[in-house]
Design brief:
The complex is a heterodimer of chains A (602) and B (168). Chain A has 5 domains: 103 residues, Glutaredoxin (3-Layer(aba) Sandwich), CATH 3.40.30.10; 210 residues, 3-Layer(aba) Sandwich (Rossmann fold); 84 residues, Ubiquitin-like (UB roll); 88 residues, NADH-ubiquinone oxidoreductase 51kDa subunit, iron-sulphur binding domain (de novo design (two linked rop proteins), Up-down Bundle), CATH 1.20.1440.230; 56 residues, Alpha-Beta Plaits. Chain A is 38% helix and 15% strand. Chain A is built from 24 helices and 19 strands. In chain A, the strands form 6 sheets. Chain A has a 5-stranded mixed beta sheet. Chain A has a 4-stranded mixed beta sheet with strand order 2-1-3-4, with helices on one face. The longest helix of chain A is centred in the last third of the chain and has 18 residues. Chain A is globular and about 80 Å long. Chain B has 168 residues and is α+β, with helices and mostly antiparallel strands. In chain B, strands 2-1-3-4 form a 4-stranded mixed beta sheet, with helices on one face. In chain B, a hairpin with a 2-residue loop joins strand 3 and strand 4. Chain B is globular, with a radius of gyration of 19 Å. The chains are: A alpha/beta (602), B alpha+beta (168). Chains A and B meet through helix 1, strand 9, strand 11, strand 15 and helix 17 of A and helix 2, helix 4, helix 5 and helix 6 of B.
Amino acid sequence: MSQLSMNNTAARTILVCCGTGCQANGSMAVYQAFRRELADSPGTQVHTYTKSTGCNGWCEKGPLVKILPDEITYCRVKSEDVPEIIASLRYGTVMERLLYRDPVTKQVYRSHRDTNFYKKQRKVALRNIGEIDPANIQDYLDRDGYNALRKALTMPPAQVIEEVLQSGLRGRGGGGFPTGLKWKACAAVERTPRYVICNGDEGDPGAFMDRSIMEGDPHSVLEGMIICAHAIGASAGFIYVRDEYDLAVHHLSRAVEDARKHGFLGKNILGSDLSFDIEIVRGGGAFVCGEETALIASIEGNPGEPRDKYIFPTEKGLWGQPTVINNVETWANVPVIINRGAAEFASIGTTGSKGTKVFSLVGKVVNTGLVEVPMGTTLREIIYDIGEGIQKGRKFKAVQTGGPSGGCIPEDLLDLEVDFDSLTAAGSMMGSGGLIVMDDRTCMVEVARYYVNFLAGESCGKCVPCREGISLLLETLTRICEGKGRLEDLDLLESVSATLQQAALCALGRTAPNPVLSTLKYFRDEYLAHIVDHRCPAGICKELTEFYIDPELCTGCGRCRRKCPANAVAGEKKQAHVIDPSRCIKCGECINNCNFQAVKVK
Amino acid sequence: MAGDIRQAAALQEMEQIIAQYPAERRYILAIMQDLQKKFNYLPKEGLQMTARHVNAPMSTVYSMATFYKAFSLVPKGRVNFKVCDGTACHIKGSQTIINEIYQCLGIKPGETTPDGEFSLETVNCLGACAIAPVLVANQKVYAKVTPAAVREIIKEHGGQINEPAVNE
């Protein structure tokens, strides 16, 4: 952009969020519009540079455009807004209509950093995301990138391992195993070659933090892996990433190439004795491949079936060799620990869980997106302060954590301080960090059925308890959702669950009953409503649902009539409307769209 | 005649894809991904060539092709709808989207319309939970999809749909 005449105006950087969420909302068009408009008007009196960045996490308000150094954040920007934004830069003004406005207090925020969504967050793993162009290694270098590697290479390997151990970092993929111990165990095995693997097979439905890191800051993952290679003496590394994550595969491949060009990968890295390279392996879309032994089988060129772990991968992993396998977010934390020291990292968090955790806050919450908070932050702070509560003023029912193997946590546990141990104690688990908020329009029996159905499809079928047990759970839950449940089904669910927990081969099967057991524990009344009263209180299970309109509350606005895809709602303007049950397909569009809570479940 | 030429061209394309990879078993997955991307399914000839290339029995390649969800042994439609049924999408109504597609096109997940135009599948999570429910038509991502939007999306991709009778 050197042809732009420099005025006495400061140089600006325009950052357009091009994460998946913003892209679906049209951010590429916004990015192109900036490039076009700025190229077409060489006389523009601002020196600008436009970048596309990874996900800012605030997907709800996308496409996001940030202007630096002014620290201005514009929300829901359209390409039509671009000429006006450029003009505003020229005159040094701020476009108030594009700033975030708090829906309750009506306060307008100039920078996203001051909003409730960001204020309580603390970015460690996500430190660069949204601030840098992930396809440009220089951006990463400008923000301390690869300095941790330089520092680590001056330290003896054992000291690097000790630093990671002292930091208290635990595996962010859900297992929560101390990362330093893993490295130490692997380094202690005499055989070579040793391998380093990044588990990017993020399969938990409702979780996308790893995707965001791989897309938005791929070099942080590479740097973590290279540091580990130095620590354990590994010669080759693999990043196993879901093929569905197009942009992540693209950015990681680019990052590996650039890192090679800069001498961070290859022979004698930065003039040291370390020789290490990374290969990217695209996964085939099997959830069980997130399990480390299954993932290893998949890299080797086999169907991704897990094996029993009498011997850990640190001893016998990829091709039978000692292997360290860590999750994406874990890797992204490593450079921070080396750069700033174990003590600083360990000062964040709780006694047993150090550092921060990235959660994907989704479902029926006002601010959906990625949030990173210190371990020990309460669920209430995450959902009500950062997330700003439940959408459309509905009632909170539960929050599901830990993916399909996690559990549902009810309202009276909202003050739980979230860390690895507290969630397990509550009958759920940390998992990879999905937080799915559910309201009174979510049927807990159907949620349990949903997860069990997911796991039934993903069970690899190798061991009998998992293959048959999950099918039996699914059959029983489906029966209850269809209104054919019997009271003794509840005992059956419990006994099959107990068998699975004890007898399944891998963690997929052993934790599969969690969604069933946690909903049975906290929401038994909903099961009973389905079985005894033949009704689904949330209005989700079609066979047990009938919607009606309360004539007292209906204002006759006609919104439900217009939204109904089956033309089942009738009524005159400003008169109470009526639903024709024979036409109703029970999709719930009427109840979801009514602004007066007039649509009810019988 | 024209069919033979097309077939020959397809075989050549398969060969080119496979030749890019070293003759090692661990590249089976990557080869199949490229074949799937190119042809929208895994042609039998492609699998046979892969088996020969990496010197593995056909049964090994077949077991991989059927184990991993990303692959299909039958051709997909010209427009492939992927409806995300991850948790966030699920509780925000992905099922009503699947139902609506069935209403409009008569296909359920895993099926293709008889004219080969549209196919439907569900995927477990596209990692775009903040904009749920999500539908992907070929490569294009649609955010916060409603039943009404499904009709527009089908029309956008050249589909015909039956309108329900209007309530008088």
